[in-house]
Amino acid sequence: MNEVIKAIKSRRSVRKYSSEQLKREDLDAIIDAGLHAPSAHNQQSWHFTVIQNKELIDEINSAGKKVGISHEDELIQKIVGDPNRNMFYNAPTLVVVSGKDGAMMPREDCAAATQNMLIAAESIGVGSCWNGMVNFAFQGEDRLTLIKKMELPEGYTPYYGFTLGYSEQKGGNPPKRKEGTVTYL
Question: How far apart are CA 3 and CA 144, in angstroms?
């Protein structure tokens, strides 16, 4: 099987990580894959904030949980309401993907870059988990403080986050794919 397709099909969300920090060459390869994602009008409207500072990751976790507790979805409330649960699964690295305000399609550009990085991580044996709840941290009262600590350039909005680290869990089988989602004409 083609190696790219193999990486796409074998990637699983990792929720149990080793405490070992990523090797710099692994991290650089993953980030570079994001920089090579497609983007609307080639604006490359993303900014990646790579956080390997445990205290800052914990702050983002706490800020996100404070906002997420009032979310309308009961499962999200349950997840963030558990005081022993870390939204980032104690991963040693968190990447926050932000989009340039006023760009043509910053959210889509950031999603494409995120997917590239998740597939790249899988291809080199690094575990990852796309995390939508990171966005809660940037909706609350701690938003500006966190953005400042992240050194996010002015004019960017955080959209996505994902964790990276060396997995301590087995891959597992893929969930069954939904039927009826493709039409050939």
Answer: 41
Report field, pTM of the whole predicted structure over 0.90: yes
Instruction: Encode burial over 52-67: b for 16+ CB neighbours within 10 A, e otherwise.
Output: eeeeebebbbebbbbb
Tens place of pLDDT for every residue, the chain, 185 residues?
A: 899 999 999 999 999 999 999 999 999 999 999 999 999 999 999 999 999 999 999 999 999 999 999 999 999 998 889 999 999 999 999 999 999 999 999 999 999 999 999 999 999 999 999 998 899 999 989 999 999 999 999 999 999 999 999 999 877 777 889 999 999 99
8 Å CB contact between 7 and 123: yes
What is the residue whose two structure tokens read 């090797």? 23
List the 93-100 sheet strands across, edge first: 46-51, 93-100, 156-165, 127-131
- Residue 97's H or E segment, with its range, is strand 93-100
Q: How far from chain centre, in Å, is Cα 146?
A: 17
Rounded Cα distance between 170 and 44, Å, is 35
